[in-house]
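hey so u asked for the seq, here:
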Amino acid sequence: QTDGYDYQLQVDYPSAWAKAVASFREVADSSECADIKISLEFKPTDEISRYAIVPSTGAALLFVREVDRRNVGLTLDVGHLLMAGENPGQSVAMAGAAGKLFGVHLNDGHSRLGAEDGLMFGSVHPVAALELVLWLQKTGYSGHIYFDTFPKNEDPVWEAEFNIRRFKALWSRAARLQDAGLDEVLRRHDAQGSQALLERLD
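ran it, structure tokens below
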């Protein structure tokens, strides 16, 4: 991450934003990239730069709107969404509804500010993982599914296989939720109704 900063009074924010927009336009307009999808994966903070010029899903959607190129969109990483204090399902719904969700990196974490744990998908936030998958379905996402986890002390092959099993199971469960009437529950803004649906599917 080289577009960020660490101090207040360090950066001219509008100028940094404009330079980033111009850079993405230049790449998107190049003959080499005319038929390639170019995806921004925002990360709100890391050890290189404490603050990012594009720090959230909302900012990222504004960014790609200003770039205004059909081949420029977003990749959403669950760990980065958690670091930004976002609800991953809502972020997927927003990017998907805008037609700008080009990729997803699935993982999990403990939501500690500035930390990216890269844990197995759905291992810490199982209901949030389910809701994310639900919104992939509801927005008609048809791109690739990536698992960006860090098995530093675990068997990486087992972890990869687990992530695939977990995603397939959540995909099936999300479809069953919709068949059971979730859309009406969402229309009513009914938290207890959604919990009752989850209980019935257990």
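The longest strand covers residues 72-77. The chain has a mean pLDDT of 95.
lmk if thats what u needed
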